[in-house]
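I hope you will forgive my troubling you with a question about protein structure. The record follows directly beneath this note:
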Amino acid sequence: MTKLFTTVTCLSFLAIGAHAQETTAAGNLNNQMTWTALKGLSEQANSNAKSAMILAEAIAACGKRSMLYSAGQPGADAQGCKPAMPDPSTLNINTYNQAICQRGGTHTVVSTCPGDERLLGCGGGPGDMDSSHEYWVLMPDFKNNRCIGYVGNPACYDNGWSRTIVSAVCYKP
């Protein structure tokens, strides 16, 4: 009987040990799969970070040359840099003027670029010859391709020198 008890006890411990080994092996397999997945995610994140760094360095290199990074776009050089603004010497520049001659009051003068041209800048001013304490505000409106001048209390004698003038400086791209 003692021999039977010893045999059964040994077999029980053997079965428990086998179950523990099987559980550990399965646990290791699950852990291995989880670590493999995490490693893949980590490698993808590193790849994305490297790509972003390369792009940031290219943007910075173009910026140091006062250019924009525009790889693959027309006009971009071998490094992907493109001038932020066309060279003024290559532009077809035109000026369009609007003038008023109204004494006193508040007036708005607008000068607009034609549809095939883009606004480069604005110029002009009040033509007050009497120092009548007028005010003057000149605003570029790039969205609508025009310049807007606001003038208040102008003195004007319609002699060309005392007119309020707004000039839109435009270019053909």
